[in-house]
Specification:
The longest helix is centred in the N-terminal third of the chain and has 25 residues. The chain has one domain. The chain is an all-alpha fold and 291 residues long. The chain contains 14 helices and no strands.
């Protein structure tokens, strides 16, 4: 049965599922480390150290220059990515894992709008529907904050930071799309942690906390899971079934809900499930419309 299932599902889908699991585990490690008293900026810096080492090995294996050609835009991609990562990690550390993950999937809205203005790409009907469904989903998710009689309330600041992280991801995507014309993907990935590390350390200042052995292992795993997720994602998107595989990336939400439920005792409320379904449906419409 396993062999038949493996043969019937494209290899790109398996890579995408593994990518989604890796990113969900990364988020779980971030939340666990933050609950141990490690500042978010220190987590970002630790993740950057692991990523810069692994990315450097990949670039050297390809025998290409690590510094690339379009340095201003490479630095811009690194800076935007660093700010976005700080926002995402802060949202993960202060919101339930499911809510933080779902809000990150608002990035297709921002990507479409930015592509319209900066890349002169037309907005398709599928994208308009994606925007409508996503905005409706956000409105439903934050409903507990608006209802005075609700026992559940999320931090408005954390919600705004999570949305800002999604916006930063969209900006980074637009820059990466521009850079792919002149740069190798490994060089683009390498610049991200190279810029993120000094930014995180500068903002961290004297708030550094010496981690214990268990926490240090989790910090390393954050970088490892991120790298595995990126490699599997890149491999899946380079396949012939990329459009089909992309739809499976949203399984990360399911993984995050399960991990949050089992490990952090975070039982998702009905508004999260309904609002999240609208956001993910909007993203899936955008991905699968032509199919």
């Amino acid at each position: 049965m396993y062999t038949k299932l493996k043969q019937s599902v494209p290899i790109s889908v398996w890579y995408m599922l593994l990518s989604a699991l890796a990113f969900a585990l990364m988020a779980a490690c971030v939340k666990s480390v933050s609950e141990s008293g490690i500042p978010v900026l220190e987590i970002v810096a630790a993740r950057a150290i692991v990523s810069v080492f692994l990315s450097y090995l990949v670039v050297k294996r390809k025998k290409i220059s690590i510094w690339g050609n379009n340095k201003p835009w490479l630095f811009a991609r690194g800076a935007v990515g660093a700010v976005s990562l700080i926002c995402v990690f802060y949202a993960i550390s202060t919101l339930p894992l499911a809510e933080a993950t779902i809000l990150q999937y608002l990035h297709p809205i921002f990507t479409a709008l930015l592509a319209l203005f900066f890349l002169r790409e037309k907005i398709q009907r599928s994208t308009i529907l994606c925007i409508v469904l996503s905005l409706l989903g956000v409105a439903i998710m934050i409903q507990p904050n608006i209802s005075f009689d609700s026992a559940i309330s999320y931090s408005w600041f954390s919600i705004l930071v999570a949305i800002l992280g999604a916006f930063g991801s969209a900006v980074a995507y637009i820059i990466v799309k521009k850079l792919t014309k002149t740069e190798d993907s490994s060089v683009i990935v390498f610049y991200f942690p190279v810029i993120a590390f000094p930014i995180a350390m500068l903002l961290l200042g004297s708030d550094f906390v010496v981690p214990g052995l268990a926490v240090a292992v989790l910090l390393i795993l954050i970088g490892v899971f991120t790298q595995v997720g990126q490699i599997c994602l890149t491999t899946a998107l380079h396949s012939a079934d990329a459009s089909k595989a992309m739809a499976y990336s949203y399984v990360q939400v399911v993984f995050s809900i399960l991990i949050g439920w089992v490990y952090f005792s975070e039982v998702p409320v009905i508004t999260t499930l309904i609002g999240g379904s609208f956001i993910i449906s909007g993203a899936l419409v955008n991905v699968l419309w032509k199919r």
